[in-house]
Design a protein that fits this description.
- InterPro entries: A-D-PHexomutase_a/b/a-I, A-D-PHexomutase_a/b/a-I/II/III, A-D-PHexomutase_a/b/a-II, A-D-PHexomutase_a/b/a-III, A-D-PHexomutase_C_sf, A-D-PHexomutase_CS, Alpha-D-phosphohexomutase_SF.
- By secondary structure, the protein is an alpha/beta fold.
- The chain folds into three domains: 157 residues, Alpha-D-Glucose-1,6-Bisphosphate, subunit A, domain 3 (Alpha-D-Glucose-1,6-Bisphosphate, Chain A, domain 3, 3-Layer(aba) Sandwich), CATH 3.40.120.10; 236 residues, Alpha-D-Glucose-1,6-Bisphosphate, Chain A, domain 3 (3-Layer(aba) Sandwich), CATH 3.40.120.10; 124 residues, TATA-Binding Protein (2-Layer Sandwich).
- The protein has 17 helices and 23 strands.
- Strands 16, 17, 18, 19, 20, 21, 22 and 23 form an eight-stranded antiparallel sheet that branches. Strands 1-5-4-2-3-6 form a six-stranded mixed sheet, with helices on both faces.
- α11 crosses α14.
- The chain is globular and about 70 Å long.
- 49% of the residues are buried.
Length: 569
Amino acid sequence: MNNNALERAKIWLNEQYDEETRTKVQDMINNNPTLLEDSFYKDLEFGTGGMRGIMGVGTNRINKYTLGAATQGLANYLQLQFPDKQKSVAIAYDVRHNSDKFARIVANILTANGIQVYLFESFRPTPELSFAVRHLGCDAGIVLTASHNPPEYNGYKVYWNDGGQIVPPHDKAIITEVGNVQPSQIQFDGNDSLLKMMGEEIDNAFIDASISQIGFNHQGKEDLKIVFTSIHGTSIAIMPEAFKRAGFTNVHIVEAQATPSGDFPTVQSPNPEEPAALKMALDLAEEVNADIVIGTDPDADRLGIAVRNLHGKMVLLNGNQTNILLVDYLLKQRQNDGMDGTEFIGSTIVTSDIFFEIAQYYNVDCKVGLTGFKWIADMIRKAEGKQKFIGGGEESFGFMVGDFVRDKDSVTSTLLACEIAAAAKANDSSMFEELLHVYTKTHFYLEDLISITKTGKDGAEEIKQMMAEFRLNPPQTFDGSKVIRLDDYLHSISKNLVTGEETKIDIPMSNVLIFYTEDGCKIAARPSGTEPKIKFYFSVKTHLDEICDFEIKEDELLEKIDRLKKEFK
């Protein structure tokens, strides 16, 4: 047994922890050293999506004490940042096991510290929390969620007063405060006079604001046949009414997945990136001859879309393709309304480089940040008063429409996707054809992802070693094409491997490597910030002069990606 983990565990046998917790810790010490080590070998940390982990006792678990320390530390930081005002925090939670209980614990700690809390009366989408922070003028926001992770997970995300997730310097400062919190300092006894429940009023405001971001097209909305699934998640609280108000009346909901449940009983993974998660929706689409299928993840910040291809067959769009359609449509409409040259779109370093070409086509700026929407929100905050954010997203099925929500938002993105599909259908086109039209304006880009899971302490070490090996012995070629540039975000250096020239990367440091080849390939390696995984991103491109050539070109790119994957064994 790891002695450090054992010593950390023994601290949890003190009287400041409740009896149930002490009993579970003692049982691990006596009977399950492997579980004890994984539960105590480290503290949960804030990553690209906040603090996320398996529920249970221990410093490396989500429980009342790790959440309590995080919340007490946040409360202490808010007292320092806003000393002369009544501070307020909005709180939302998802459908997961214990999310409602955890949300109430967090609310109690904040009110015990004299902070006004606005708590949703039941589960709500994460983007609605981001909206509520700004709508209510709160100093911070918290959402209890583990997004699309397995049922045993839960998590905790902190938002600042701009509605975006915390970024430097606040994230590190809050972590410092959290690290200084002793269990005896956590104030668990709440003050209900400082607690206000939220519900329909915020729902209505959020739906109205969401619809105001779209509404460019009023053609054919009633003719668009939509299949929608919430995959047992929070979007069911909002989407039926949002569809109705936006004018989409021909909506078929997958009833078997409309029941909120932290067990996600009809899917192996409630992740709209996984085709299996949308199988029931795709089956229903064939029954009703739907034009579009949309599924959202449990906290309703991400969405997966399927549309009919050139042969009328339902195909799943990847995250980049959905993002292309949304961004291109937004820019096209803004261009029709008249742009003033201050517009920009947002993307991330592992997202397709096609967005640079789209931005160039419309003569707007494309800003790029690290993975995670907190960095796109940070772009918006820094550009306020100088530039206008139109939209953007990342390859992992997250998108943002306008800046009224400062996090990925499946609600507004769903409505916008349906508007694009309705407009295309009314003009004897399709959403798929609209995507191909974009490729003819730029390059035809195609991407794929390998995600390798490595759990526990040993897994974390293995991922660390894999990244170290890539730095020590970087590949010289991919698929026979020479690597001409290497971007190392951990050391903030972009190196031209032809000339040897090095330039500084003006983006916060992160453990990411991106290789660029002579023939236009882009390959990225990145450990996940929210899951025990390492991810490899592959992007290839070619010219598509005519839509009729699409399938030939697609086969060529798919074969190239397959060869690249094989090189990674």
